[in-house]
Design brief:
8-stranded mixed beta sheet, 322 residues, repeat, extended, Leu-rich_rpt, 7 helices, alpha/beta, leucine-rich repeat
Length: 322
């Protein structure tokens, strides 16, 4: 599927919501509950189930029993099981687009999704959207539900945030953009409180961000930011990288998955006021500990001084790939 909506439809088919023991089939007593409850029943009498019908309790047991042929695999999400149970109790939710109202968390991983389409707006209760390991290069904010609190886009091809920041979800608390193609310094301007007033966690790891000073000046406006990941970017190679961030963002609690203790904050106190220490270069020292597969010079017979024997010279080329 090329879009999120198409991937979700495929997901629904995989869950078998229209098939036994879910859905609106003749096997489900729930489909007639409303009609039957409207008819007065004599006291002490219970209506017998027509042949082939099962009570919701029996159908739920078929879904929950791990040995049942209709049970989901153990690695399925809790939401998948919840959806199946809900449509057993209220199968009328499968009519039209009412099923979208049940979804608060949507995870579509490694499904070849390329487009975040406007079909997502049908998920009016959606709070968590996980689209990791797909082929998404741009995200249009107009296609995102305003209820979103978590947006995870790691391992995609996102290289520009202009469309995402046009009108981003106002309640977003986590934004995951690790392992994408964000290049500095053109993208740093998108990480301010003007776009993300409630952001608590930001993952920018393993992109191509280079402007540490520019990025910090933007991040410092995010008053709720507590968790930040920047490892894997070129700017993380700057010698004073961690100390400068720790001192510049006093409300930060975790940097690159490492907790910031008070002792560390005290150690780097005052570093934020010395931007001249931030050098836009990094030095990498490579030491060769051992080389295998080369001839041992001691195996060659030493030539006497003045000997006319041939002289053999060896030269080697060592290549580093980073």
């Amino acid at each position: 599927p090329g879009s999120v909506s198409a991937a979700f439809q495929e997901y629904l088919q995989h869950l078998g919501l229209q098939d036994f023991p879910c859905g609106l089939g003749s096997w489900n007593k729930s489909r007639c509950n409303a009609r039957r409850s409207s008819r007065a029943q004599p006291a002490g009498l219970e209506e017998a189930l027509p042949p082939g019908e099962e009570t919701p309790e029996v159908l739920l047991e078929l879904l929950r029993d791990q040995h049942s042929p209709w049970a989901l695999p153990p690695n399925c999400s809790p939401q998948a099981q919840c959806l199946r149970e809900v449509v057993v109790l209220a199968p009328e939710l499968l009519r039209g687009s009412r099923v979208f109202q049940l979804v608060k968390s949507l995870r579509i991983l490694d499904k070849g999704v390329e487009e975040v389409d406007e079909g997502l707006l049908q998920f009016q209760q959606l709070e968590e959207l996980i689209l990791s390991a797909n082929h998404i290069s741009r995200v249009t904010s107009a296609h995102l539900p305003r209820t979103l609190k978590v947006l995870e886009l790691c391992y995609n091809d996102v290289g520009d945030l202009q469309d995402l920041c046009a009108q981003p979800p106002p309640e977003l608390q986590h934004l995951g953009l690790g392992y994408n193609q964000l290049r500095g310094p053109s993208q740093e301007k998108h990480f301010t409180v003007d776009f993300w007033p409630n952001l608590v966690s930001l993952d920018l790891s393993f992109n191509i961000l280079t402007d540490l000073l520019g990025l910090v000046s933007q991040l410092s406006t995010l008053q709720n930011l507590r968790i930040l990941l920047l490892q894997g970017n070129p700017l993380s190679l700057i010698p004073t990288y961690r100390g400068f961030l720790v001192d510049s963002l006093p409300k930060l609690s975790i940097l690159d998955d490492i907790y910031i203790w008070p002792e560390e904050r005290q150690q780097f106190q005052g570093l934020a006021g010395q931007p001249e220490l931030i050098r836009s270069e990094a030095r990498l020292v490579v030491s060769i500990g051992e080389m295998k597969g080369l001839p041992n010079l001691e195996d060659f017979q030493q030539l006497e001084v003045g000997s006319e024997g041939p002289v053999i010279a060896y030269s080697y080329c060592v290549t580093y790939q980073f």
